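re: that chain from earlier
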Amino acid sequence: MPHSGLRNTAAERASYTRESATAAAHGVTRDLAFGLDACTPRQQQLRALLALAIFNCGRGSAWPRHTPLHELSIYTFAISPRCDELVIIAEAPRNIVGRLVPRDHLPEWGLPGLRVKRECGNGAELVHLPTGARMTVTRDRAGRLDHDATPQTGLWREGRPLTKEECTVLESLPAMSAQAQTLLGALTTRMSTKDPSGGWDIAMWFTDLLDRPGNGRSDGHARRLWGKGNRWELAWTSDPHPEDLLAALTAPRVGVPGATAQRVRTGWDIRFRDALLALRP
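^ sequence. v structure.
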C-alpha cells in the first residue's frame, strides 16, 4: 500500500472518527477504504452485541438484563475499528472498562462474557469469551497500551468462565444474520463520528454539539434496538438527530459500503443487501 495513499486516507478517516491519524491507519483497508466495517466474523458479532446492549435503555428497552452500558454515552471517546480488534480511545479508560466488564458485587454489570485479559497503566485489553473477539480501551491517542498495572478490584478476568446467568442472557437474544450484524455493528463503530464539514455529528448519542436551534430532541434517553434475522428496528427519543444518524450510516466514504436509505412514513429504512434496519425516531 503506497505510504502517501495510506497517510491521506488515515487523515481523512480521522477527520470523521475523532481518532488520531496514527490510530486510523491501523484500520484502513488495502484498497484505501476507511474500513469501519471491514472485520472478522468474531468482531462483527461483538460489535452487533454491543449495539444491542448500548442501544436499549429506558422505557421500552428490550435488553434482557439491567446494564449501564447505555451510560457509555456520557463519556467522550473515539472508536478505532480494526480488522480483528475494537479500540476505544478515551480520557477515562478505567471508568469505561468498569462499565463494560462484569464484576464480583455487580455480576449483571457490563456485557455478558466480556473479561479483562490485561490491565495497563493507560487502559486494558479485553476479550469476549463467547466469540473470542478482542477490545482495547486506552488513553493513548495511537490506541496502544503501556506497562502492566495493578488490576481493578473485582473485575472479572479472562480465567473466569461464563456464568449461568450470562449464558441465559446470550441464549435469549434473537438470531441475527451476518448482514444484519454489519448494520448493527455500524451503530457501535459510529458513536463518535462527525462530518468534518460540520453538517452532522453523532456526539455519543448524548447531545447536539452543533447547537442547532429548534432541532432539540430532549424526551429522555430511551432507546430500543430489536428484531430478528435480517429485520431490525431502532427507536430513540433523544439525540442524535435522525438525519445525522442517517448520514453516518449511508454517506459516501464514512457510511456502510453498499447501504442505502429510503424515506418512509414513520422514519427511514436502511438496507444492506438483504438486511433492513428501520430507523424510527
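The mean pLDDT is 93.
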